[in-house]
């Protein structure tokens, strides 16, 4: 997993990243001021636990802020890498307890190399499924260059966070064999004082069924919907077990894949979930400021 990259790519230096952060800090901080009702970036990152489902177009990126801990789950596309690093800077993040690369597709890990270069990160969690792609090689290269530990999490493994929170890794099982790379996505569950958020990467029906067969408790308040709302994910059986109150779909406006699929939206609605699509309303925070 720690092999030498087979290519090189010019990356922004630390001064360039700092300049970008400062250049956009006022604008993004103003948006976060409206969300949080106060300034960010000074002292403790977040007193309680808040999840930011960051709008990165046709990709995935979520930031967990819990006390002094920050965890990033996926990092969007290479094209939105600066947007992600700027957002983290404006949110007061200077260090990541963990970053999770759910699976080796560019729309989930494209920005991860830039994130690892910009923020000291304790551990990068990634599945055993690998890829030979520029974005994947760049991520491994950045982890090695920055001394970030890399780990394949086992089902049942738990990452303890500040503010009485934890992130439990539920899937994939190391012995599982799937046809689709999407089904090797790391699935994790955030628990914090009664708040439960399920992150599914691009997991499709086969991975959902394998998780159900494992007996894992996936009941959640918020579901990060698998595979950008594709009709290959979010089966009725899975939604029956998860029973989310809110479903968040991360996708780009007018994307070529037709995400989110009407059938998926119909299933989510039938299960009583309030649906939030980043393509329509942008970045979504949970709990919301008025919760």
**What is the string of helix and strand elements?**
HEEEHEHHEHEEEEEHEHEHEHE
Q: Percentage of helical residues?
A: 25-40%
Q: Label the structural class.
A: alpha/beta
Please give the number of β-strands: 14
Mean pLDDT: 88
**Main beta sheet:** 7 strands, mixed
The parts where pLDDT drops under 50 for at least 5 residues are 1-12, 14-20, 22-45
| Oligomer designation | single chain
General shape: globular
N-to-C terminal Cα separation, in Å?
42 Å
Secondary-structure map with pairings?
Elements (H helix, E strand, L loop, with lengths): L13 H23 L9 E8 L8 E6 L1 E5 L7 H10 L4 E6 L5 H4 L2 H7 L1 E6 L8 H13 L2 E3 L6 E4 L3 E7 L15 E6 L2 E5 L5 H10 L7 E3 L11 H7 L3 E4 L12 H9 L3 E4 H4 L2 E3 L5
Parallel strand pairs: 3-4, 4-5, 5-6, 10-11, 11-12, 12-13
Antiparallel strand pairs: 1-2, 1-14, 2-3, 7-8, 8-9, 9-10
Helix pairs in contact: 1-2, 2-4, 4-5
Brief description of this entry?
By secondary structure, the protein is α/β, with parallel strands linked by helices. The chain contains nine helices and 14 strands. α1 packs across α2, α2 packs parallel to α4 (112-118) and α4 (112-118) packs parallel to α5.
């Amino acid at each position: 997993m720690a092999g030498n990259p087979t290519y090189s790519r010019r990356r922004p230096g630390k001064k360039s990243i700092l300049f970008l952060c400062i250049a956009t800090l006022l604008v993004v901080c103003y948006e976060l001021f409206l969300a949080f009702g106060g300034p960010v970036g000074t002292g403790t990152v977040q007193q309680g636990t808040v999840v930011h489902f960051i709008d990165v177009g046709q990709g995935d990126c979520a930031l967990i802020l819990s006390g002094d801990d920050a965890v990033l789950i996926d990092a969007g596309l290479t094209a939105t890498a600066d947007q992600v690093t700027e957002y983290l800077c404006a949110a007061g993040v200077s260090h990541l307890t963990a970053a999770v690369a759910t699976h080796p597709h560019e729309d989930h890990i494209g920005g991860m190399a830039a994130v690892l270069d910009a923020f000291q990160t304790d551990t990068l969690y990634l599945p055993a499924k690998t890829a030979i792609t520029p974005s994947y090689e760049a991520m491994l290269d950045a982890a090695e260059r920055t001394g970030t530990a890399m780990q394949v999490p086992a089902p049942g493994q738990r990452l303890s966070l500040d503010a009485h929170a934890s992130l439990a890794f539920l899937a994939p099982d190391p012995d599982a064999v799937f046809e689709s790379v999407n089904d090797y996505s790391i699935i994790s569950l955030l628990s914090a004082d009664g708040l439960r958020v399920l992150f599914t990467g691009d997991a499709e029906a086969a991975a959902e069924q394998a998780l159900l067969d494992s007996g894992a408790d996936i009941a959640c308040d918020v579901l990060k919907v698998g595979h950008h709302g594709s009709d290959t994910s979010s089966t009725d059986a899975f939604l029956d077990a998860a029973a989310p109150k809110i479903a968040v779909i991360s996708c780009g406006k007018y994307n070529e894949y037709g995400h989110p699929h009407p059938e998926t939206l119909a299933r989510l609605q039938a299960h009583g979930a309030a649906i939030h699509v980043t393509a329509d309303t942008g970045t979504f925070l949970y709990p919301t400021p008025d919760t």
